[in-house]
Amino acid sequence: MAFLPEPFQIAVPQESIDLLHKKLDLALFPDELEDAGRDYGAPLADVKRLVERWKSGYDWRAHEARLNSTLPQFKVDIEVDNFGSLGVHFVHQKSEVANAIPLLFVHGWPGHFLEVAKILPLLVKPNSPDQPAFHVVAPSLPGYGFSDAPRKRGFAMAQYAELCNKLMISLSYSQYVTQGGDWGAYVTRKIASVYGHKNSMAWHSNFPQGIPPTVTSSPLIYASHLLTPYTKRETLAIERTKEFETTGRGYYYEQATKPQTLGYALADSPVGLLAWIYEKLVAWTDDYKWEDDEVLTWVSLYCFSTAGPAASLRIYYEVTKAGDRQLPSAQLPTVPHGVSFFPKELRQFPLAWVKAATNLVFHSEHASGGHFAAHEKPEAIVGDLRKMFGRGGPAYGVVSGKDGYAA
Question: What percent of the chain has pLDDT over 90?
Answer without folding.
Answer: 85
